[in-house]
Design goal:
6 strands, alpha/beta, rod-shaped
C-alpha cells in the first residue's frame, strides 16, 4: 500500500448502497478535509468495493454495513484478507445486536455513525489511517454489551454440556435438588427411594467434582 506523508492525501473509498449518501459524503469530505482526503472511488455494494480496493489501492474505506450482493462485514473480511494494511471504518445508521463484535472479528478498524458531524468523520478517517481504531460512544457500549453476552452464552453452554454428561436420572435429580427440593420431595417426584436420590447426587458430585451447592449454581448457570 502506498505510504502517505503529511502532504499526501489519504486515498479513500466510500461504499454505500444509497447514491445520495455517496455523493454527499464525497463532496462534504473533500470540503471539510482541506485536501487531506482524496476520494478515489465510490461503490454501491460489497462486490464493487472489493474490486475497487484491488484497483485503487486505498488507505481507508468507509464501508456501509447493509449493502446488496455482499454486506459490508463480509466485504471487510475479504478485503482485509487480501490487504491487511487498508483501514476499514464501518459506517452505519443502525447497530443490530452483535454487529460491532462481528465487524471487529472480520477485521474492521472502527465503527462510526452516519449521523456523525462531517468534521468528526474527517478526524475518524485521519486517526484510523494513523493506526488508531475509531469507535463511536454508542458502538463502544454495544461492543462491551455483546462481549458480555457472548461470555454469558459460553458459560451457559459449558454448564449445559456438563449437566448433559450425566446419566439422565442423575441429571434429573440434580435439577430437582437445585430447585430447593428435599431428598424426600425429589424421591416422591421421581418415584424412587430417598436412598437412590442420595446415590444419584453423590454420583453427580463425584463425576463433576462439585458439592451440592455447586451443582445448584451449575443448574442456574445453565438456565434450567
Amino acid at each position: 500500500m502506498e505510504r502517505v506523508t503529511d502532504t499526501t492525501p489519504i486515498r479513500l473509498i466510500i461504499a454505500d448502497d444509497d447514491p445520495l449518501v455517496r455523493q454527499s459524503l464525497e463532496l462534504l469530505l473533500a470540503q471539510a478535509s482541506d485536501g487531506r482526503i482524496d476520494v478515489v472511488a465510490t461503490c454501491a455494494d460489497g462486490q464493487e468495493t472489493i474490486a475497487a480496493a484491488e484497483q485503487k489501492n486505498p488507505n481507508v474505506i468507509l464501508m456501509d454495513m447493509a449493502m446488496p450482493h455482499l454486506d459490508g462485514i463480509e466485504a471487510t473480511l475479504r478485503i482485509k484478507s487480501a490487504n491487511p494494511d487498508v483501514r476499514i471504518l464501518i459506517l452505519t445508521s443502525l447497530s443490530p445486536r452483535n454487529a460491532v463484535e462481528r465487524a471487529v472479528e472480520k477485521g474492521a478498524d472502527g465503527f462510526i455513525s452516519k449521523a456523525d458531524d462531517i468534521r468528526d468523520m474527517v478526524r475518524h478517517i485521519t486517526e484510523v489511517h494513523a493506526g488508531r481504531p475509531q469507535f463511536s460512544p454508542s458502538s463502544q457500549q454495544q461492543l462491551l454489551a455483546d462481549m458480555r453476552a457472548t461470555r454469558l452464552n459460553s458459560r451457559e453452554d459449558e454448564a449445559r454440556r456438563l449437566l448433559d454428561s450425566l446419566p439422565e436420572r442423575e441429571r434429573e435429580t440434580v435439577i430437582h435438588a437445585a430447585k430447593g427440593l428435599s431428598n424426600q420431595e425429589i424421591a416422591l417426584q421421581m418415584c424412587i427411594s430417598e436412598r437412590t436420590v442420595k446415590a444419584h447426587l453423590m454420583s453427580a458430585c463425584d463425576k463433576l467434582g462439585m458439592n451440592r451447592v455447586m451443582l445448584a449454581r451449575l443448574v442456574e448457570r445453565a438456565g434450567l
